[in-house]
């Protein structure tokens, strides 16, 4: 007998009320959660079985305050709930999640959702915090007013879902009620006022707030949202973050480096000199190993980002930066997408779905690839450690760390500059409405969720090293090795290879900015992933040096001028070296136009900036 179809349930609620935490707890998934609005921007589906063996297909949705959706992420929720989504039939039952600490917007949404006719269960989540704060909620009154079951939950605690599961099974045992007629219509301003008043009445009847309002969050915010001290704190925090990425990681990186060198020595000792040895040492260890070394830096960066997300600081930073970003024509909501782009532009671009005005959204998408993503870290670190002396300044800051900070700064400043130009170019249309931001309460980060987040990111990085980066490194090795030098050749073997031929072909475009042909061979395949530039340089130089033992950094320092090195760094600030990002831009904007605009302006900017940097450096005498 075929199994009956699972019940289709959807998690609906305002932003940041814990929908995804519930989703993860119920289905065992590892979707991203974070203490700010707009973490989830697309629908996710998972399966689970209740204690009474009911099979459930659960849909996690982006948060929204109303079905009157404004931004692309909210539109997903509206379409799924109203059964208009092309790939998703309407759910049979909604779990309407309400933040028990700040129940207003959730209860308002629940009242609006009653009109859809879909059966629902209201889940008062974060009840742990509500109890701690002595917020009392009269569930019987809520149940009577809304006419639906109301349960409490703590999504992030073991056993916090028992009541929800019991009620769910009881509801399903009676058979899911048929959906009533859908009477929902987009509310106008008068409807909205009415519904806000109705929600206020409901809260007045069912929720008792403790008298004092001066919570810890308020006290911390007095400092951290201070216009001067707050900004100084934010700047200091970012500075510490980049110093940490650069200096804390060093000992672990040395350790990894040491073990790779040991393995390479083993291979040299046991595998006869020739193609096999060259492949293993130059491509696999030199190339892929050369990238894997950067894992500690990536992990430290993500640790900072995950902690800030979970603490609830992100929205504060957005609030502080709103004025500065507004001056450059960026919407306050652009901050979190841009900050996420420090990790990777792809989730950053996806996160722009929370911006409702298309012009603001496209401007953010346009500049997101300028933020320093983690794939640039290996390139920056390699060049900075090879060319910038490891001195300390004022005895505390490392000069190398300062240069790294400068590279990040250059990305941020150029993103602001490009968006200011974009604002000037498409200044038509009315100004964006003011930025309304929910500041979530601070929360102690959940160790488990931070650990899972770190693990997922680290695995993704290693997977990239084992797939894309490995493949491209092998391609580069083949190109740099074949055809082999003819008998009696007088020049180095690599000059007879395909790689040299390709590099020479690109030389006319790249020599004005100080690049040699080896760099051309490294940056073309690095379109697949920026780290390949490091693997590529390692492989090309290793092959041309006949598998010499020199460390890549030392080798580069002996072969490149400082002017060339600086130009190479600048190239990686600006050039659109990432095909996946371009593909996501195309998908998220729904047309190839914005993708080509991005490619064109970034390449043009990269070339010009490199040209200036290189010639200026030569003038100074660094040529
Ligand atoms: N203490 C406590 N924290 C919770 C609970 N549920 C969620 N959280 C925290 O609340 C924050 C928001 O959780 P998410 O699951 O990302 O919220 P969401 O509703 O999916 O948010 P969006 O996707 O942005 O709409 C995270 O920091 C969670 O760790 C809970 O029951 N108790
Ligand atoms: Mg979510």
From TrEMBL:
Cellular component annotations (GO), alphabetically ordered: plasma membrane
TM regions (residue ranges): 223-242, 279-307, 334-356, 405-426, 465-483, 489-507, 519-542, 562-585, 597-622
Keyword Membrane: yes
Record key words, sorted: Membrane, Transmembrane, Transmembrane helix
Coiled coil (residue ranges): none
GO MF assignments: ferrous iron transmembrane transporter activity; GTP binding
Record domain FeoB-type G: where: 6-174
One Pfam family matching this protein: FeoB_C
Protein name as it appears in the record: Ferrous iron transport protein B
């Amino acid at each position: 007998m075929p199994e009956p179809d699972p019940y289709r349930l959807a998690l609906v609620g305002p932003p940041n009320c814990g929908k995804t935490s519930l989703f993860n707890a119920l289905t065992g998934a590892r979707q991203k959660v974070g203490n700010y609005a707009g973490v989830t921007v697309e629908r996710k589906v998972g399966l689970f079985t209740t204690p009474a063996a009911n099979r459930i297909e659960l849909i996690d949705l982006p948060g929204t305050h109303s079905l009157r959706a404004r931004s692309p992420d909210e539109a997903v929720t509206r379409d799924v709930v109203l059964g208009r989504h092309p790939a998703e039939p309407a759910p049979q039952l909604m779990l309407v999640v309400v933040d028990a600490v700040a129940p207003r917007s959730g209860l308002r949404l629940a009242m609006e959702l009653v009109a859809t006719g879909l059966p629902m269960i209201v889940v008062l989540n974060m009840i742990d915090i509500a109890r701690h704060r002595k917020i009392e909620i009269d569930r019987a009154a809520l149940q009577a007013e809304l006419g639906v079951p109301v349960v409490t939950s703590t999504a992030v605690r073991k056993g916090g879902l028992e009541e929800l599961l019991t009620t769910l099974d009881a509801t399903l045992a009676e058979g899911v009620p048929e959906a009533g007629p859908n009477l929902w219509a987009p509310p106008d301003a008068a409807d909205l006022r009415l519904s806000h008043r109705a929600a206020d009445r409901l809260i007045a009847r069912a929720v008792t707030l403790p008298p004092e309002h001066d919570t810890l969050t308020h006290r911390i915010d007095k400092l951290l949202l201070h216009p001067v001290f707050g900004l100084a704190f934010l700047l200091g925090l970012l500075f510490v973050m980049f110093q940490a990425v650069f200096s804390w990681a060093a000992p672990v990186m040395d350790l990894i480096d040491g073990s790779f060198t040991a393995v390479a020595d083993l291979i040299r000792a046991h595998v006869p000199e020739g193609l096999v040895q060259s492949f293993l040492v130059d491509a696999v260890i030199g190339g892929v190993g050369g990238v894997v070394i950067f894992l500690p830096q990536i992990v430290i960066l993500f640790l900072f980002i995950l902690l800030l997300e979970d603490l609830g600081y992100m929205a504060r930073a957005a609030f502080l930066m709103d004025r500065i970003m507004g001056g450059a024509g960026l919407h306050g909501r652009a901050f979190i997408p841009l900050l996420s782009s420090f990790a990777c532009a792809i989730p950053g671009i996806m996160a722009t779905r929370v911006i409702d005005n298309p012009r603001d959204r496209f401007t953010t998408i346009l500049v997101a690839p300028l933020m320093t993503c983690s794939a640039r870290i290996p390139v920056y670190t390699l060049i900075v450690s090879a060319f910038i002396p490891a001195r300390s300044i004022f005895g505390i800051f490392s000069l190398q760390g300062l240069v790294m900070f400068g590279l990040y700064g250059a990305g941020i400043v150029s993103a602001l500059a490009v968006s200011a130009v974009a604002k000037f170019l498409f200044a038509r249309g009315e100004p964006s409405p003011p930025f309304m931001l929910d500041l979530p309460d601070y929360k102690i980060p959940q160790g488990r969720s931070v650990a899972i987040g770190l693990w997922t990111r680290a695995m993704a990085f290693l997977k990239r090293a084992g797939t894309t980066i490995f493949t491209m490194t092998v391609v580069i090795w083949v190109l740099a090795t074949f055809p082999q030098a003819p008998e009696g050749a007088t020049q180095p073997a690599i000059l007879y290879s395909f790689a040299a031929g390709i590099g020479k072909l690109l030389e006319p475009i790249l020599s004005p900015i100080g690049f040699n042909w080896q760099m051309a061979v490294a940056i073309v395949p690095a379109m697949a992933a920026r780290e390949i530039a490091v693997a590529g340089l390692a492989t090309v130089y290793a092959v041309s040096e006949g598998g010499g033992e020199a460390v890549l950094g030392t080798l580069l320092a002996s072969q490149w001028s400082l002017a060339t090195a600086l130009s190479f760094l600048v190239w990686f600030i600006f050039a659109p070296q990432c095909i996946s990002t371009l593909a996501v831009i195309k998908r998220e904007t729904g047309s190839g136009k914005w993708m080509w605009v991005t490619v064109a302006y970034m390449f043009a900017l990269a070339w010009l900036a490199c040209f200036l940097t290189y010639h200026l450096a030569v003038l100074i005498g660094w040529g």
